[in-house]
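User: I'll paste a sequence; please echo it back and then give the predicted structure.

Assistant: Echoing your sequence first, then the prediction.
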Amino acid sequence: MGLKADSKKNLEDFRAYILVEKNFSQHTAKAYCSDVLSFFIWLKDYDCTKVDFAKIREYLHFLQKFDYKKTTTARKIASIRTFYKFLFREKKIESNPAENIISPKRPRSLPKFLSTDEVEEILNNINISSPAGYRNRAILEILWASGMRVSELSGLNFGNLNLENNEITVFGKGAKERIILITDRAKGYLEKYIDFARPLIAQEYNRNEIITDTTPVFINKTGYRLQTRMIRNVINDIVKKIELPKHVTPHMFRHSFATHLIENGADLRVVQELLGHASISNTQIYTHISMQHMKDVYNETHPRA
């Protein structure tokens, strides 16, 4: 059964709204639209603009049958709430039926991070004898030195670089601009990548390349912007090679960056600014990690623990 024309139009307009105006990532937008589509399928021929609070509660009761994780249920509720907020904003409905829907409280687990030795082991096992290998070393050095998101790194253009001052401008969630700092070591790898490795990565395609402010910094073998999936693959290959007993993701470098700053006495507000967190509460979780790490070390090393 296909969607009715008006439902399809509402979904397309909603997708454009969350991508352009709300600046959701492609991944998040896809998940939200999938959630709303599932809701439409459940509604069958029922007009989504006629839905009331009771109808949404009925749908939430239906979702309970599938025993979803709380995080999944919370996202599905957020998707529907955002969709009806959009319809109300566009004056397609007179009131928002999802306004008072309460999401389940999400369990907050502590982010996983790498020790300094583990990070260095990963970095030192990157084969930098090839241009692509040197690029990969530069990428992971920057992730470790800056705490930037992998999507922010993938989106870097030459106009974002201010290497003279060890600064990089990135655009995070909500298109918020911030300046991040990198170490001299990370800057050294980045400069050598730009000067020597980058021109060789896609030399068959970029022989006459003119570098402008909008030219991507990190590219693949065909000269296009390196995507986040490729960066994840690089990490997976190295972790498999060194047999590190952890599932390592690019985001773990961000968690590790923040955790080690806190452990070494960095001010929480400074870490918040470097990470680009809108709320200090998002940054405070790293103090909990540090405390748990301290307890673990205490229990492992104290003779009476």
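The chain is about 55% helix and 5% strand. The mean pLDDT is 88.
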